[in-house]
Every structure is written in structure tokens, then in C-alpha cells.
Amino acid sequence: MLKDEVIDNLQKAVGRESVITDKESLLCYSYDATRIEVLPDLLLRPKTSEDVAAVLKIANKEKIPVVPRGAGSGLAGASIPVNGGIVMSMQFMDRIIEINKDDFYAVVEPGVITRDFQRAVEAEGLFYPPDPSSVNFCTIGGNISTGAGGARGIKYGTTKDYVMGLEIVLASGEIISTGTKTTRSVAGYDLTRLITGSEGTLGVITKATLRLVPLPEKIVTAAAVFPSLYSAVSAIDNILKSSIKPLVLEFMDRESIRVVKELLPIGVRENGEAMIIIELDGVQEIVEREILDVKDMCLKGGAINVEIARAANEREILWKARRAISPALYKINPTKINEDVVVPRSKLSDLVHDIREIASHYNLQIVSFGHAGDGNLHVNIMTNDKDKDEYNRAQEAVKSLFEATLRLGGSISGEHGIGMTKAPYLPMEVGDRVISIMKDIKRVFDPNNILNPGKLWR
Ligand SMILES: Cc1cc2nc3c(=O)[nH]c(=O)nc-3n(C[C@H](O)[C@H](O)[C@H](O)COP(=O)(O)OP(=O)(O)OC[C@H]3O[C@@H](n4cnc5c(N)ncnc54)[C@H](O)[C@@H]3O)c2cc1C
User: Fold this and answer.
1) Is residue 57 one of the residues assigned to a domain?
2) Which of 173, 189, 317, 343 could covalently link to 53 via disulfide, CB atoms 3.0 to 4.6 Å apart?
3) Residue 425 included in any domain
4) Residue 83 sits in a domain of what CATH number?
5) CA-to-CA distance for 14 and 28, rounded, in angstroms?
């Protein structure tokens, strides 16, 4: 509960309309896509970097937690106000300030919806590749803070590879800038890279300079259905080892196909055990030829059917189905524990094997899909949190999944981040000494621990 005097000071600093206290509004900002819910004491909707600075000065003096928030689509509980305090929604800082066609960059505010940004640069003949499946509603600020990935990471990398510079408001209320608008720079420690992926724990991002690339002339898409998980994984391996460099190489297991079946094109609705989606981008004649080579590789690898979508509307149908998998899984069970482990690409079939063993050992249904070309799978452990025994087994399965991933040389999060839900497991991957260095860094940026406390570690 915040003191009236503090609320008064905040209203004086940023205007009454930006400070919201009614319970109905607070409820809307109390959860993310994990469905974990904690009510904040106050909602703040700043309009400028100066507003953010004024709020942080007050919060730092009073030692009030501040949780920056984009669209609340995170899958690790990173924007949940676990310790109460202020949720700072960046939704009204959503301007695209500059698109520079000569030097291939754009400057944006953090609240821009990623899809809106992509459309704006595409209208200028440019391309912003990072495309999390939540692209229609997540924000650039959230993407930078989680280091978001997406399907095109296999060819173009993830959000981390596109952040050239940031404007940050520190916990003290100071506004600093990091990085440059040049393609290279080695001026001291790379604070841009440090803040990217720091999940709102080091500062509030108020502006970002993002790298752009030329818009590809043509994108073609194919979907191939396979009779077994392993034939699909082996086709992925063959495509990756060929001279073709896919834009996208996505994987869906039988249950993922089943939950979005009605949305899929008729040709790939067959009862396969797995499906892969392949996309190629580049010069029209080349990608038109290469997609036939890919079709051939899939058929030789045992595919039951391969459909090629050349027109934009045909591609959109496939993507609509692919993006619908995560929410559609709730048709199976009321609770899902969604992990996003990643392994070196060559270990994908070992990971698929281990996931099967874990499902059978704990007698649970596990559904997997995701960015297989990067070795990054969304592993959904289906359960019911009202069934205590099953839920406990699901938690044990999570630990076994992380152990298997680390044994294979992977990481416990390929793109969703650590947030709250993976905080207990971070030491398994990085070790206690590294965590203590991370805590030292946190103290330099935020000595009073007001920025998104309770995240990354316990
Ligand atoms: C259906 C679905 C599909 C998804 N698919 C993908 C996918 O393919 N790839 C992927 O990577 N993720 C995916 N996600 C997860 C999620 O969309 C991403 O993590 C996304 O980057 C979160 O953006 P957001 O704007 O919702 O941020 P939020 O969830 O609001 O916040 C996420 C983190 O960013 C911090 N933050 C937000 N804005 C700022 C700021 N301005 N300054 C400092 N910190 C800030 C928050 O404090 C929090 O720690 C998916 C989610 C859903 C629901």
C-alpha cells in the first residue's frame, strides 16, 4: 500500500491522468501469459522519458518496487509485480521516431507493437527480422528486455542482434544513452548488450535504435508432414546441412498439429506424427527453385505430403495456425508449463528422445513445437494445477528436462527469459559464482533493488 503523500507526489510529477489506482485497472496489469497474478499498488503510464525519470526518482527515494511492462505477453512471469509497488506500462510511449533508409536503422519508443514496427519499415523497403509468435501484440521494449527470438532467428538472429543503442532511465532517475548508430563500435563495455535481455532489472528502456536489413524480394513457404518425429528431425538436419539457408525451420509434433488442425491447409491435415514449416527468402527465381529442392529432400526423407505456399495469403494461413498452437493447447488441459529449452542443433534428436522418456517416466503428456532449426523447442508439460499429485510430477519433469538440456550442452531458455518461473533453476546453468557477479552488476545499476525485484534469482 503506497502512502497518499507518495501518490500525490507522483501525480504532481507526471500528471493525474498517468497515475491509476482503481482496482479494475490494476487487475488488467497484474498478470502475463503465465497466468500468474499479483496485484500492483499503482499503475503508471508515462508519456516521456522525463516522466519515467521523475517516477524513478520518487520510487528510489521511497524504495518502492517498479516493474516495467510492455504488453504482458511474457512466458516467464517477468512483468508480474511480485513485491507489489508500481507497474510502469510503456504503452503510451509508442512512437516510431525515425526510419533511416541510408544507414539502415530506426529509432523507436519501447511501447511500439512489433508488428506495427515491421509494417512501417517494410513500407520503406526495409526489413526487421525478429518475429516472436506474439508479434501481433508484444512490444519492442518487451522484446529487447527478454532478448526475444522467433522463427527467423535461424537465418537472421534474434532481437539481441538488432539492438544498436538504447536510451535508459536508471533507478536513480538519470537518463543515459548506450551504443551508436554505426555498424561497429568498441567504445568500452557493451552496455547495450548487457541491458538487452536483462528483463527490466537494470533500467527502463525509453528509446531504442534498431538495425534494419533490406526487404527480401520474395518469401516462399512449405509445410511437410512426416510419419514419425525422427524422420522430421532428420529432414531438418538434412536441410541444415545442404547449401540452402532457410529463413524459417519450424517443428510441430502430433498434438501441436491436432490442436490447430482446422486452421491448417487441407494438404497437411493428414495424421502425421510431426510437421515442419520451411521458409526461404531472397531473389524470386532462386527461392522458387530452392523450395523444390527442399520438397525433394522432405519426400526422400519419408514425408507423407509437402505443400508449397507461394502467395502471401496462403502463407498467412499457415502462420495463423502456427501462432495459434500455444493458446490452443489449453484445449487439452487447464494448465501448461511452457519451457523453451535450446540445444546445439545437432542434439535435437537427442532432446526429442529425452522429452519422450521424461513424459513416459512421469506419466505426463508433453507437447513440443518451435524453432527447431535453432535447436529451440517449446516444451509444454500439460497438467492440472488442481491435481496435486500430477502437478508435482510436472514440476519434477521440468527439472529433469533442464538436466537433460544442460547435459546436451544447451540452455534452459532460448528466448522467453528467466523471470520468476525459471529463477530457481538459473544456478543449474550458470553456477553460483556467475550469479554473484550478476548480483554485483545489479547493485551498480540499482543499489536499492527497486527495478523488477524478485526476478532472475531468488
Ligand atoms: C502466444 C505467444 C507466443 C509467443 N512466442 C514467442 C516467440 O516466438 N519468441 C519469443 O521470444 N517469445 C515469445 N513469446 C513470449 C513474449 O511474447 C515475449 O517474451 C515478448 O518479448 C514479451 O513482450 P511484452 O511486450 O509482452 O513484454 P512484457 O511481458 O510486458 O515484459 C517482459 C519483460 O520485459 C520487461 N520490459 C518491458 N518493457 C520494458 C522497458 N521499456 N524497459 C525495461 N524493461 C521492460 C518487463 O519488465 C519484463 O521483465 C510468446 C508469448 C505468447 C503469449
Assistant:
1) yes
2) 173
3) no
4) 3.30.43.10
5) 21
Q: Is the CB of 73 under 6 A from ligand 1?
A: yes
Whether the pTM exceeds 0.90: the reply is yes
Residue nearest to atom 49 of ligand 1 (CA): 199
- Tell me the Ramachandran region of residue 99: left when phi exceeds 0, alpha when psi lies from -120 to 50, beta otherwise: beta
Q: What H or E segment, with its residue span, contains residue 126?
A: strand 126-127
Same domain for 101 and 202, yes or no, is: yes
Q: How far is the CA of 138 from the centre of ligand 1 (A)?
A: 6
Q: Is the CB of residue 413 less than 8 Å from the CB of residue 341?
A: yes
User: Are residues 352 and 247 both part of a single domain?
Assistant: no
Pairing of strands 42-44, 86-89: parallel
Give the pLDDT band (50/70/90) at residue 1: confident
Q: Would you place residue 456 in the very low, low, confident or very high pLDDT band (cuts 50, 70, 90)?
A: very high
Cell (9 digits) for 312:
502471401
Average pLDDT of the residues in 315-342: 90
**Domain with 406 in it: what CATH number?**
3.30.70.2740
CA–CA dist 378, 413 (Å, integer)? 10
Strands (E), 273-424: 274-282, 305-309, 335-339, 365-371, 376-383
Which residue range(s) make up the domain with 13? Answer: 4-91
Residue 438 pLDDT level (bands cut at 50, 70, 90): very high
Domain holding 243: CATH number? Answer: 3.30.70.2190
Q: What is the pLDDT at residue 313?
A: 86
Indicate the residue among 178, 194, 214 that finishes a domain: 214
Q: What are phi and psi of 397, to 5 degrees?
A: -65, -35
Q: Residue range 39-64: average pLDDT? A: 98
* 3-state SS assignment for residue 371: strand
Pocket test of ligand 1: the residue of 48, 51, 73 to mutate, having most ligand atoms within 8 Å of its CB, is 73
